[in-house]
Amino acid sequence: MKFTAVLFLLVQLFAQTVAIQDPTDPRRARLSGIVLNERAQPAVGVTVNATPPGPLGTMLPHTQTDAEGRFALVGLLPGHTYVNAFDEKAFYPFASSNFWDGQGMAEIELPVGGEVSGIILRLKPVGRLEVRARNAASGTAIEEIAIKLERDGEPKRWTSGTKMGDWWLVPTAAVRLCVQAKGFMAAWYGWDGSFARSMPITLAPREVFVATVYLRALPTGVAEATCFDKRDR
Prior knowledge:
This protein has 233 residues and is mostly beta strands. The protein has 2 domains: 121 residues, Immunoglobulins (Immunoglobulin-like, Sandwich); 89 residues, Sandwich (Immunoglobulin-like). The chain is built from 1 helix and 14 strands; from the N terminus they run αββββββββββββββ.
């Protein structure tokens, strides 16, 4: 019965254009809790957001923790919801994908018109990887890059993205780095740019590591070469 009520409400909501967050709707849900850092102390000023069920086309509901590390969000869509806490400048990642180990995240079921309270989100600091790319022939810097980060071992877990400043947060586990840029061959961090001879990077919590990758120009007749091409295992 409870599942039917939630499903009926979601069908009604997504059949029309509705706000992803509406505190005035009594059918919407609420959540609250606390964020703790790695020393089990309240984490102040950390961003907390909620990813609701259904398609997303706007900014996620979010807030920041208060002086006691507490947070609350109201007017949320009911159903299966992911709650994330993060502060990337303080080395706490937005761990919304399986590339991470679930730090700072909780999965909850929000009831129609109800509340889930007492949520505890536990943060763990990670490392920061600063990436530099250079032309292998001239040594000049390449500014516009994209990267792929892949964790060692099974299951296969990876993430990718374009340049955001020049750094990415990475788990405190072995990762391999691939860099690509327009007009150049993609290259893995290591001896010769191949995956077979790539070097894993393992960082301690809050450790900062600078990785420089040299890219070779594309051969004549090759349109592109990306980090997602078949690897040379």
